[in-house]
Amino acid sequence: MRNTKLGAFLRKLTALVGRFPLLAALPVYVWGVVWRVQHVFVRHDPRSTVFSDMGMYVGIARRLADPSYVMTKYDVTHPPATSWLFSQFYQRDASFFELMLLQIVVASLIPLAVGWLACVAFDRRSAAWAVVVSSCYFNYVEFAGFFLAEVYMMLLIPLCMASYLVAVSTPSLARRLGFAILGGLLFLVAVAFKTVAGPALAGFFAVHWLFTTGARKPKTLVLAVMVVSTLPGLAVIGQRCTQANGGQFCLPSNKSAADFLLGHYDRVASIQWTDATFGSPSALQHGYSASPKVPFSITDHEQNMEAAWQWIDEHKLEAAVLSVQHVFDMFAPNAPWPTIWTGEWPVAQAQMYLFVIFLIWPSMLLLFDIGTVNGPMAMLRSTECALASVLVGVSLGVFIATGEPRYRLPFDCVFIVLGVQFYRRMLARHGWRLFRRAYHTGRMPA
Hints:
The chain has 21 helices and two strands. By secondary structure, the chain is an all-alpha fold. Strand 1 (270-272) and strand 2 form a beta hairpin. Helix 2 packs antiparallel against helix 5 (97-121) and helix 8 runs antiparallel to helix 11. The two termini are 28 Å apart.
């Protein structure tokens, strides 16, 4: 009797949540915000982990906060947005407490941004479930505790993609132009935080424009407006970088050639330039220990490129294998740096395993299912394929440079949205009887 009543209650509850997913999304989202506040204030104050890349961003920010400071080539080794943003907060509050509060707010907005992307790509039910998953995703919480660009990218990527989708689908010309301008500005800011956002989002725009079902004319107009709204900002960023780099053109940073060399100079843990030493966390996880010295600066574009191409020419097979390895490193189920070196590594590692099993793998199955049921061209023309194409640009970026799971995290919103669609597609095909039968018999149906 007790099992019968419990089963009836669970069936009614799942039916209610299935019909009104906001009932599940809202309390989970509120719990997620509380988790973020507790994590940053109690467990992981970002001011306690200012080393390596975090120390570099904070150091540049402190220099930029001085109005009389003249930028040098070492201030533009990374895209400008992170250090510039930090410098604005440093001028207001040297303790960075207000910046820490901003990162909590940004981390709390990420689930809503992912939900908006799911809503405009599919519908409100997908949005509700995407908010639930995003609120519980550990990396969306963890990276609020580091002074890095990733937490801002996690917000910007889904916002930019959603703005573009709204712009191409709305019948109103005013809304189309408004969201196209917004999408272009978000694209600009994303590139200013991380260069890899450029090829990633460009790949999404290109695939959607070329293949996804819908009229080509509004897509062309939207992309044209986005380009026009982006160019002035890119010109300012390029001028800033070039001036600091001694007149040698760079956009948005001057370390891209050094990253290319780091990924194509044999199996090395790091490289010692004459003025800096940099390495890849994935290389350390592979057990590489070599740290060769090179007789030129980390900002010397020509010599870095020449050394890399010379090694590639002499080791063509090794270079090709390393490039592919960088892509696999990005998708590897490893806890990302810097979490892997903190006390949270077991949670992060376990969560990455769950993310691969329950979201990345189902996302790929979703595309395969669309292709087998409706045909390859239907899959290519689907919104699901367009969303997944953002990962092609990311893969191209790490193929050229170096790869690690941290580079993928801002684009995990795609796996969340597609993973939700996979489970909704499965439920639409099999219905809730899939779970009811499993509850009563203890076995999943064939």
